[in-house]
Amino acid sequence: ADHWHAEFGRCAQPATDLDVMLAALSDRGMRIGVVTNSTRAAVQNAKIDTVGIRQHLDSVVVSETVGFEKPDKRIFQMALAELGLEPNQAWFVGDNPVKDILGASAVGLPPVWKRGNLDWPEEHDQPDLQIDSLEELLPLVDGRAAR
Length: 147
Hints:
The chain is of the alpha/beta class.
């Protein structure tokens, strides 16, 4: 188990064009954060470093470090505070309908559901913003800025 935890983070693979997308968001003046549930902050930080995105991040909030996890409102509020943003000034992109999307919504943080990993729970309304790949995020951001 110790070997697994020591090596797992270094095996992470980025989503297609993740670095390009994050660079484009940064170029648009966007502040970028990561909110992640993990009982091992070192593993999450190793993943971030392995995929090479730390230079694009203004905040990294790991549940083990802060003592609460998604969907708890406090983890989203902490990330917003670190970014210096109010909920209506940001979006939360996530793939877990309950932990990410409903959790972000509970603090007034508009969610963007990245479909494909989990089915949407029928008892909840789906969010307005939905994507199937990260590449779809830039047109949404550009459309929001144009309004």
